[in-house]
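Worked example 3 (structure in, sequence out).
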């Protein structure tokens, strides 16, 4: 993986500028005037500044990890010749949320003007295709988030030989509205209500059969990631998988997010990932799909 963007020391109290509905999801937009440019695939630990817990006499929730879905630079930016793109002094971070429990529900309730504690960007992100391979982006559900900023990055710096192919899968039409975060996506839904009545990995197999000279970038639930891993391994195709696991700290101190590797060891998803080369992994564990 490439040299990563490091988070400023300590969490930052930022301000929500918008919370917009996108089908079954919410897009939380946060002003981050002093924040560094996150790399696609990196994440942040989020916690609301107020009412972050079950009640006054109970412990607060632990922060929740969410991939950066988009970064809009402000107009004060500078050229970084080494990377060939513009690195902002600050900007606006976007996160894709789904209400699946008390912590995410509280974040989904935030409105413009509310405070949000943010620690990030954290972890290792995606790296550009090598050997003139095309980029093939595969996402499932809320796991599409890091693929949106990755598509932005590939388009802005011209790191791919052609526009990335985007394959997205959702459970139904309402969730599939999240595909608006990306451009020119081919869709599959579990119930056939929009796009192909198929699993997104079926679309992936068809595309790899047609042109195997690709690098696959995937993020989604564990069953999807395991299917992607198997497909790519059988064809000797490089793949970068964005994993997720329960995190308490986000920077490797608690060892709460370990995932087993093919050689019998372990990696910490928060610092060794969340983006991991598929060849390092054996079977993807149930907890290692994206809920970011």
């Amino acid at each position: 993986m490439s040299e990563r963007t490091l988070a400023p020391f300590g969490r930052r109290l930022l301000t929500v500028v918008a919370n917009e509905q996108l089908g079954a999801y919410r897009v939380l937009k946060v002003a981050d005037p002093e924040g560094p440019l996150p790399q696609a695939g990196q994440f942040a630990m989020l916690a609301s500044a107020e009412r972050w817990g079950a009640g006054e006499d109970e412990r607060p929730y632990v922060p929740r990890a969410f991939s950066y879905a988009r970064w809009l630079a402000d107009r004060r930016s500078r050229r970084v010749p080494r990377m060939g793109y513009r690195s902002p002094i600050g900007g606006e971070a976007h996160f894709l949320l789904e209400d699946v429990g008390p912590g995410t529900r509280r974040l989904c309730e935030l409105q413009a003007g509310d405070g949000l504690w943010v620690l990030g960007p954290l972890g290792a992100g995606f790296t550009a295709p090598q050997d003139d391979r095309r980029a093939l982006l595969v996402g499932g559900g809320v796991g599409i988030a890091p693929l949106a900023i990755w598509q932005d990055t590939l388009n802005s710096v011209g790191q791919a030989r052609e526009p990335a192919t985007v394959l997205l899968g959702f459970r139904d039409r309402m969730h599939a509205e999240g595909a608006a975060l990306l451009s020119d996506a081919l869709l599959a839904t579990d119930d056939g209500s929009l796009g192909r009545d198929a699993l997104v990995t079926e679309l992936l197999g068809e595309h790899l059969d047609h042109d195997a000279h690709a690098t696959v970038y995937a993020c989604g639930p564990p069953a999807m990631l395991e299917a992607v891993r198997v497909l790519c391994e059988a064809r000797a195709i490089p793949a970068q998988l964005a994993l997720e696991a329960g995190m308490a700290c986000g920077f490797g101190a608690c060892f709460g997010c370990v995932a087993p590797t093919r050689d019998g060891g372990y990696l910490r998803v928060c610092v060794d990932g969340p983006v991991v080369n598929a060849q390092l992994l054996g079977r993807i564990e149930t907890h290692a799909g994206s809920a970011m």
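Notes: Residues 173 and 193 are 5 Å apart (CA to CA). The first helix runs from residue 102 to 109.
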